[in-house]
């Protein structure tokens, strides 16, 4: 049986929703990223405690017309990509809450 | 028998950029004159200074102009280094030191770095932009080299007060942003006026065949603003502050794209 994956927002980045887009800045090298809608959903739901398959089922499959298996495959690839850029943390165990950055909600 | 100790003269000048007085101490009268000339209009007589730097002058051979600037934070101190200077600043003690040759460019870079760090803590920033005051309102014109900062400054009408043609000083004061004049010049080589006004708009410059102003979506504005903010420190907390400060700014200040041709009529669109 495939192990569950957990994702968490990296504490080493700064993020902010501006208009309809999520901007993310990496602390290392001050690199700026713009997340696409799927990555934004993943980012917002990445609390370190909810398994990735549940995030996909509840947040992505409900938003986009896509099969759960296909959506999970895509989400795993996306999470790996975001992790490579230091935006997300991935683990086969739940990730402690102190490692999860709080998303900024401002007017 | 000649005296065993020689009294060393100590000279000071207080340079107030953005209303922040910084005292610079040197034992070299010639260097003092360089500073007074370089920062004319920003030298103030006020004895109080927010920060103080002792400049230790190195022999002329001390320079590697190809080296990158490095700004690091350790044990409560900032360490700044480039090929032509080494500096250290302790914000808590409000003191620092600079090791450089007798030139105005090295200390200029140190002051810019120090001001970026001070401003980041207050929600402000230094921005690659020209800025000017007209009718009591400050306007910023941002862009990379060649975008038209100097051109727009040169085209400014007589009733506009130029704050800078190269690097703008933006501070958050309560719920508004205020732009201050700076001595940091571009091609115009003319010091800005040492005055300030609330920021009314930020224009992102683009040169084109005609003059037009278009609104810019918040995310685009944030991206472009961040690409023009001067920031040197690879420090996690500072990156957070600069990022959030820039995002706050674009949510409070209107941002437009200003496409213009080199014609003074472009200023009719600035309001």
Structural features, described:
The complex is a heterodimer of chains A (107) and B (271). Chain A contains 3 helices and 6 strands; from the N terminus they run ββββαβααβ. Chain A is α+β, with helices and mostly antiparallel strands and 107 residues long. Chain A has a single domain, classed as Outer Surface Protein A, domain 3. In chain A, the strands form 2 sheets. Chain A has a 3-stranded antiparallel sheet. The model of chain A has no long low-confidence stretch (mean pLDDT 86). Chain B has 271 residues and is of the alpha+beta class. In chain B, strands 3-1-2-4-8-7-6-5 form an 8-stranded mixed sheet, with helices on one face. In chain B, a hairpin with a 4-residue loop joins strand 7 and strand 8. Chain B is globular. Chain B starts with 10 loop residues before the first strand and ends in an 11-residue tail after the last strand. The model of chain B has no long low-confidence stretch (mean pLDDT 92). At the A-B interface, strand 2 and strand 3 of A face helix 4 and helix 5 of B.
Give the helix/strand layout.
The complex is a heterodimer of chains A (107) and B (271).
Chain A: E1 6-9, E2 13-18, E3 21-26, E4 32-35, H1 37-45, E5 47-51, H2 52-60, H3 68-84, E6 88-91
Antiparallel strand pairs in A: 1-5, 1-6, 2-3, 3-4
Chain B: E1 11-17, E2 20-26, H1 29-38, E3 43-44, E4 51-57, E5 70-74, E6 77-82, E7 85-90, E8 95-100, H2 104-120, E9 125-134, E10 137-142, H3 149-154, E11 161-164, E12 167-173, E13 176-180, E14 196-207, E15 212-215, H4 218-228, H5 236-252, E16 255-260
Parallel strand pairs in B: 2-4, 4-8, 10-14, 14-16
Antiparallel strand pairs in B: 1-2, 1-3, 5-6, 6-7, 7-8, 9-10, 9-11, 9-12, 12-13, 13-14, 15-16
Helix pairs in contact in B: 4-5
């Amino acid at each position: 049986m495939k192990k569950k994956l957990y994702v968490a927002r990296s504490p080493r980045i700064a993020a902010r929703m501006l208009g309809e887009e999520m901007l993310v800045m990496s602390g290392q090298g001050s690199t700026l990223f713009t997340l696409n809608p799927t990555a934004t959903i993943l980012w917002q739901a990445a609390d370190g405690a909810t398994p990735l398959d549940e995030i996909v089922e509840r947040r992505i499959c409900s938003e986009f017309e896509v099969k759960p298996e296909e959506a999970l495959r895509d989400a795993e690839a996306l999470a790996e990509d975001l992790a490579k850029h230091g935006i997300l943390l991935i683990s086969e165990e739940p990730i402690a809450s102190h490692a999860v950055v709080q998303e900024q909600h401002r007017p | 028998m000649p005296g065993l100790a020689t009294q060393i003269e100590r000279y000071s000048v207080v340079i107030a950029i953005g209303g922040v007085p910084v005292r610079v101490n040197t034992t070299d009268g010639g260097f003092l004159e360089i500073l007074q000339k370089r920062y004319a209009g920003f030298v103030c007589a006020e004895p109080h200074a927010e920060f103080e730097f002792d400049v230790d002058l190195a022999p002329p051979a001390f320079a590697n102009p190809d080296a990158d600037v490095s700004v690091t934070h350790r044990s409560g101190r900032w360490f700044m280094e480039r090929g032509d200077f080494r500096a250290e600043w302790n914000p808590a003690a409000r003191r620092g030191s600079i090791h450089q040759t007798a030139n105005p460019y090295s200390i200029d870079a140190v002051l810019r770095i120090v001001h970026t760090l001070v401003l980041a803590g207050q929600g402000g920033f230094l921005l690659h932009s020209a800025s000017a005051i007209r009718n009591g309102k400050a306007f910023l014109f941002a862009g990379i080299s060649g975008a038209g900062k100097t051109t727009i400054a040169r085209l400014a009408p007589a009733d506009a007060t130029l704050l800078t043609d190269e690097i703008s000083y933006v501070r958050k004061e309560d719920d508004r942003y205020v732009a201050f004049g700076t001595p940091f010049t571009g091609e115009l080589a003319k010091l800005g006026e040492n005055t300030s006004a609330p920021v009314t708009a930020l224009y992102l410059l683009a040169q084109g065949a005609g003059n037009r102003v278009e609104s810019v979506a918040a995310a685009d504005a944030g991206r472009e603003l961040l690409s023009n903010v001067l920031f040197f420190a690879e420090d996690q907390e500072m990156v957070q502050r600069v990022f959030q400060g820039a995002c706050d700014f674009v949510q409070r200040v209107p941002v437009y794209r200003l496409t213009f041709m080199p014609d003074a009529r472009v200023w009719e669109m600035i309001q």
